[in-house]
Amino acid sequence: SCFPVCRGTLGEKRWRQLNRAYFREWPSQTPWFREIPREFVRYLNESTSKPVLPAWFAELAHYEWVELAVDIMDSPIPEHLATGDLLSGLPLLNPTLMNLTYQWPVHKIGPDYRPRKMQPSQLLVYRNGDDKVQFVASNAVTARLLALLDSGKLSGRAACLCIANELAHPSPETIVAHGHTLLKQLHQQGIVLGVKA
User: Fold this and answer.
1) DSSP readout, 14-79?
2) Residue-wise pLDDT tens digits, 39-81
3) What is the DSSP string of 158-192?
4) C-alpha distance across the termini of the chain, in Å
């Protein structure tokens, strides 16, 4: 039930065959029922004897599993200043955030769309203040900014300047200004919670 899109794209017959192969062949590492979907994703990525599947199938399964993973994640919110300065302070990311990069457009795949060529995509999945799982399409620069901030050691300004340096941008302060706008948007979405207290 964790993989409705995978099931819909394969069709019932192939889906049942895949399920039987998984339960028959994969040595599960956990007895917990809610961990079975994670084990299924491991099977798709690691098994050498699984049935032939579309090239994007394992990534699609991971994307569907992420919703469950974020929903049940035990991630207490650390102390922070919700209204702190996102440039001079150390931005605090939502502890449930998964900053994901896929080789395929997994968020678009379904029974009516099966991609033939890779199309890298960045996606953010997190639980908002109402404890609802949110999915947000991202881009390479936003993904990089969040990856830099994930260490908890860089101010918003320092992270933006790092990106400006990586891009060899002739006007680093322009990147800082755009980054500040982006940080405010991420804060409004609940992806950035504020700054460390």
Assistant:
1) HHHHHHHHHHHH---S---GGGHHHHHHHHHHH-SSSPP--TTHHHHHHHHHHHHHHHH---PPPP
2) 999 999 999 989 999 999 999 999 999 999 999 999 999 899 9
3) HHHHHHHHHHT-S-HHHHHHHHHHHHHHHHHHTSE
4) 41
Please answer whether residues 102 and 121 qualify as being in contact, where contact means their C-beta atoms are separated by less than 8 angstroms: yes
Residues 6+ apart with CB under 8 A from 129: 190
151-194 pLDDT, tens digit per residue, is 999 999 999 999 999 999 999 999 999 999 999 999 999 999 99
pLDDT in tens, 86-143: 999 999 999 999 999 999 999 999 999 999 999 999 999 999 999 999 999 999 999 9
Cα–Cα separations (whole angstroms), residue 119 to 111, 135, 167: 18, 18, 22
Neighbouring residues of 114: CB distance < 8 A, sequence distance ≥ 6: 9, 54, 56
Q: How far is CA 166 from CA 2, 144, 145, in A?
A: 39, 10, 11
